[in-house]
Amino acid sequence: MKIKNVTVAGGGVLGSQIAFQTAFKGFDVNVWLRSEGSVDRAKPRFDVLKETYLSIIDRIKVGLSDENTVNSVIIPRGISTEQLAIDDNENLKKDVEEGFNRIHLLTDLEKSVENCDLLIEAVSENPEQKSDFYKNLAKVLNDNNIVATNSSTLLPSSFKDLLPHPEKYLAIHFANEIWNNNTAEIMGHSETSHEVYD
Q: What one-character-per-residue DSSP string does 55-112 give?
């Protein structure tokens, strides 16, 4: 299973962070939003995230010494897990710009998932809203889509029967400030396939 195209459903605080980090790491990202009003509210979040990443990268550059070693600088895991040199700074900035341009905000659910390999649902922590979303999603999914919820409080087993392929459904819960806390909890249910876990 190769993942290249990711759809994030929801552009709130964590949905926007998931989408931006995913695009920063080289994936093509569609963000599905309920309405044009939601699009208008999400756009500034992505602008702020872009500036946040660029600011972090600028601080990293200041901390690099002439010997190209990190000098008392903590490099967030979401930015890089490697030892950085001064030249890497411009490449990271380029990754931010390119990632920002790989994010597409859509209100058409079918269009947002048409080439999707992985959909990460980050809609409100409301069981009724999630159920409604999954019922609509089930109508437009194809056989290859992996679907994950970012829910922190609701079990994936609560929604698995709303999807045509429950074996391709699980939870991937990301920590807030994903660029710093680049970690996720992965939880399936009794039918989640091992291949999807992997």
A: HHHHHHHHHB-TTSSB-S----TTT-SS---HHHHHHHHHHHHHHHHTEEEES-HHHH
User: For the chain, how long is the longest CA-to-CA vector?
Assistant: 58
Helix axes 36-63, 13-24, angle to 10 degrees: 50
What pTM, to 2 d.p., does this model score?
Answer: 0.92
Yes or no: say if 64 and 73 are a contact pair by the CB < 8 Å rule.
yes
Give residue-wise pLDDT tens across range 23-68.
999 999 999 999 999 999 999 999 999 999 999 988 877 665 545 5
Q: What's the DSSP call for residue 177? A: S
pLDDT tens-digit readout, 5-32:
999 999 999 999 999 999 999 999 999 9
Which residues, in sequence order, are bridge partners of residue 70?
Answer: 64
Give the number of other Cβ atoms within 10 Å of residue 162's Cβ: 18
CB-based contact 110:137 (threshold 8 Å): no
* Pairwise CA distance, residues 102 & 91, whole Å: 16
Per DSSP, what are the bridge partners of residue 94? none
